[in-house]
Recover the amino acids of this structure.
């Protein structure tokens, strides 16, 4: 369409009514006088209204010519800045000013589609400047000899000679640069801002001759970059854009702190040496794997857990162990593909990522940690370990362009390597230049995550670093701890919670770390394992015992988005008596607003029975906000108000796996939560019932009884249908009490699983008493009268500890 415009203008024709003389010197002169010569700069008057007044005295041909000038202008406007339907509507409005209106041809309407570039808000607001340039250029174009016009259409440099001298009333780059690209896209870049062109040349052709034509220099740069980025790469491609378009002040500050850490005399000992040792061990494992030595995959798992490094998190270790347990052959094939072959590293990563079983390593960050760790076997100096949190912090501090909304592991790995290589390249002027990509990764980690003052640093330098890193003034005291982005966890309250729960404090700390990492966790397991009680007690501790800072919400099949977030509710107006609808906030929005209003305090929302609701429907936009805590979304009932989850609001959910397996939870949901198993044999629950019985003066043999029952249940029903300890965490555990608990609480649960099966009779109390209870020892037996054990006693009241009535 752009070339057709110049051909039509050359011949004096029309884009809208072919054959009619519209692009003529006389009509262009009339437009010049009416539009450029009589500018309308009135504020708060619509652009089209201004222009209609300016064209009031023009001929129909001149009015149509103005419509066709706008066709050319709209060819250049990206559809994200002006929708195709908006462009067509404006053109049709202008055509309606003609004495005999004409329709917009289909080919012109179709050309309004994608557009070329976003010109920026100024160019959109001051359309008159761009339109004026097109009128001036067209005047010069139609005045040229035919031979010169034809030559310009064929030769890009001749065309540039014609475009370059055309003046702009405001020195606008957009119209001129866009016209060059539209007519000769193989020669002139799709860059419509002169400062962007200069930035590209400064980054990629700093040694070039400033006197040389910038477009010729840009052609050379494209030839240099094509082998790396492909023939049709764009300078606004996420792989290229950050290299030339950045906040120079933020980038300089980041480099300063990286240099400070890198010249620290303990840097190698703290951040480099142990990684090179891990590299050597991984290289041995790689050779073993390629040679087909037995049990090499178990040795890989052992290296992941090696306490000599902290290069992968415990969730990755758990995920790999689960993968090896579920699909050992798949693990072997995936790792071998990563460690061998001629494909590019990014292709190997994509192949590896596709083979990770669902639910094993649910987040991009976890899979990235594993992939980067394994790739260290190819040489850590070029393939460093990676943890996404440190690089996200670095990108935030430097103003690096935002990640895609759903980044893949391979794309994230490539993005991190690019960042490290850029840091390496620019470190040549530092006091202690980086040696390789491993150094770059290490300084990123120290600059964004280091928590203790390096010994030689003066206090004021450390405090300045913390202020820069954390975005707020640091305490200048000598014993200053790095400020937290959200309030610190109340340690005394956790100690008390640990004592109340009879759970080792280290488990609570581990769960706090998970919450600090992601903001939300799920306690999952069979009934009676204390999930809800622990969640409530932990929430109370995190809220310093202040009831208004934590809340429990019960999910059920009828729970809706409107119940949980917010919705419209009918209310009667007290004055008129009329029925109206008012937006009523749900518990999530209320807690978020309370947390936002009190940013120095931690707030906690407990969601009980998370999996009983239709989660995608209930959570809505919250699915996005749970993953991107630093971004906002528009809620259904407040589309004009951005809403975000504050960092000081944590969510603890519980999930009864007897009702629904974790594997059935939507994958998008799984990756937004960290999951903590509450199974009778997990570390934090092992021995819990025995500890409670001892502390309460109850018979310790009850714990042995439950353990024996669970060993058999695991074999027949699986780990998620065992008995939780809270069934028996009650006072007065005589035989009669245990029988009642079994008959009225435990047996109905087992009956649901074994309905109609002969095996069910083995789980009635009479059989269970003989097989397990009488063998457990240290239990209080009832006096048997003629073998009758049917006499009922008052059931003991349950204690508060671990009572899960909801389960």
């Amino acid at each position: 369409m752009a070339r057709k415009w110049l051909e039509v203008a050359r011949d004096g024709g029309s884009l809208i009514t072919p054959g009619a003389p519209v692009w003529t010197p006389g009509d262009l002169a009339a437009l010049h006088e009416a539009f450029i010569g009589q500018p309308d700069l009135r504020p708060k008057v619509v652009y089209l209204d201004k222009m209609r007044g300016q064209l009031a005295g023009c001929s129909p041909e001149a009015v149509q010519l103005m419509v066709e000038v706008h066709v050319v202008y709209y060819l250049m406007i990206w559809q994200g800045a002006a929708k195709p339907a908006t462009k067509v509507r404006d053109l049709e409005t202008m055509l309606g000013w003609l004495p005999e209106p004409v329709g917009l041809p289909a080919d012109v309407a179709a050309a309004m589609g994608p557009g070329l570039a976003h010109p920026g808000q100024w160019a959109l607001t001051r359309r008159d400047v761009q339109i004026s340039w097109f009128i001036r250029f067209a005047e010069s174009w139609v005045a040229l000899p035919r031979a010169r016009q034809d030559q310009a259409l064929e030769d890009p440099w001749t065309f540039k000679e014609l475009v370059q001298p055309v003046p702009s009333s405001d020195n606008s780059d957009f119209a001129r640069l866009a016209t060059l690209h539209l007519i000769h896209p193989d020669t002139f870049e799709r860059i419509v801002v002169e400062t962007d062109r200069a930035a590209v040349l400064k980054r990629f052709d700093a040694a070039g001759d400033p006197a040389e034509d910038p477009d010729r220099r840009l052609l050379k740069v494209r030839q240099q970059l094509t082998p790396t980025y492909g023939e049709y790469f764009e300078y606004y491609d996420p792989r290229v854009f950050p290299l030339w378009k950045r906040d120079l002040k933020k980038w300089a500050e980041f480099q300063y702190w990286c240099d400070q850490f890198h010249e620290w005399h303990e840097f190698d000992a703290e951040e480099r040496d142990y990684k090179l040792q891990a590299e050597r061990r991984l290289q041995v494992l790689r050779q073993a794997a390629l040679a087909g030595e037995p049990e090499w995959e178990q040795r890989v798992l052992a290296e992941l857990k090696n306490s000599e490094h902290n290069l992968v998190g415990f969730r990755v270790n758990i995920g790999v162990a689960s993968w090896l347990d579920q699909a050992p052959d798949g693990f072997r094939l995936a790792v071998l593909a990563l460690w061998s072959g001629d494909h590019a590293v990014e292709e190997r990563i994509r192949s590896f990522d596709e083979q990770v079983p669902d639910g094993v390593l649910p987040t991009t960050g976890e899979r990235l940690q594993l992939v980067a760790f394994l790739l260290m076997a190819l040489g850590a100096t070029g393939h460093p370990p990676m943890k996404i949190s440190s690089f996200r912090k670095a990108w935030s501090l430097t103003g690096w362009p935002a990640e895609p909304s759903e980044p893949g592991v391979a794309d994230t790995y490539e993005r991190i390597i690019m960042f490290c290589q850029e840091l390496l390249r620019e470190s040549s002027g530092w006091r202690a230049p980086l040696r390789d990509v491993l150094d770059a990764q290490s300084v990123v980690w120290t600059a964004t995550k280091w928590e203790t003052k390096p010994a030689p640093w003066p206090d004021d330098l450390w405090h300045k670093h913390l202020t820069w890193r954390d975005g707020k003034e640091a305490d200048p005291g000598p014993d200053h701890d790095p400020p937290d982005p959200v309030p610190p966890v109340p340690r005394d309250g956790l100690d008390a919670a640990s004592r109340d729960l009879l759970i080792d404090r280290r488990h609570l700390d581990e769960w706090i770390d998970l919450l600090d990492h992601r903001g939300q966790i799920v306690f999952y397991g069979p009934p009676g394992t204390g999930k809800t009680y622990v969640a409530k007690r932990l929430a109370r501790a995190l809220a310093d015992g202040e009831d208004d800072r934590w809340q429990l919400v019960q999910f059920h099949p009828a729970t809706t988005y409107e119940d949980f977030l917010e919705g419209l509710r009918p209310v009667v107006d007290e004055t008129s008596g009329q029925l109206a609808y008012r937006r009523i906030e749900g518990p999530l929005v209320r807690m978020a607003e309370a947390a936002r209003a009190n940013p120095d305090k931690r707030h906690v929302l407990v969601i009980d029975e998370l999996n009983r609701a239709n989660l995608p429907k209930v959570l809505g936009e919250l699915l996005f906000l749970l993953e991107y805590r630093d971004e906002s979304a528009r809620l259904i009932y407040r589309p004009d108000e951005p809403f975000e989850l504050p960092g000081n609001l944590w969510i603890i959910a519980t999930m009864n796996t007897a009702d629904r397996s974790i594997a059935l939870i939507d994958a998008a949901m799984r990756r937004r939560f960290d999951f903590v198993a509450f199974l009778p044999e997990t570390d934090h629950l092992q021995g819990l019932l025995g500890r409670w019985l001892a502390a309460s003066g109850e018979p310790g043999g009850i714990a042995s009884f439950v353990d024996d029952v669970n060993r058999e249940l695991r074999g027949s029903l699986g780990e998620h249908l065992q008995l939780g300890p809270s069934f028996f965490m009650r006072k007065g555990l005589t035989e009669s009490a245990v029988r009642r608990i079994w008959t009225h609480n435990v047996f109905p649960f087992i009956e649901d699983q074994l309905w109609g099966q002969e095996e069910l009779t083995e789980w009635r109390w009479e059989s269970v008493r003989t097989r397990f209870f009488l063998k457990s020892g240290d239990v209080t037996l009832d006096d048997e009268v003629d073998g009758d054990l049917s006499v009922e006693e008052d059931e003991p009241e349950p204690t508060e500890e671990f009572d899960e009535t909801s389960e």
Q: What stands out?
A: Residues 472-485, 784-807 have pLDDT under 50 and may be disordered. Residues 241 and 279 are 32 Å apart (CA to CA).
